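USER:
Try writing one entry.

ASSISTANT:
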Amino acid sequence: MALARGAGVADPEIVAIAGDPVTRICSAAEEHGVDVIVVGSHDKSALRRLVDPSVAAGVVRATYRPVLVVSGKPPSAAL
């Protein structure tokens, strides 16, 4: 929360819901009227993508809302 506020997000909210991640993320975005959906992403091998599809890619395909996909380690973790 502090990181979000520090980045200028006025009223961040954490939402935890069980179920299919793509469906639940898109539903929560609709229910809360979000301006942008932010999801993390990391590299997977081709075999891993077959068994465990990308949630980020699924969200991008399943919503009309803007989606920001963040990839890689944060700068502080890279040090």
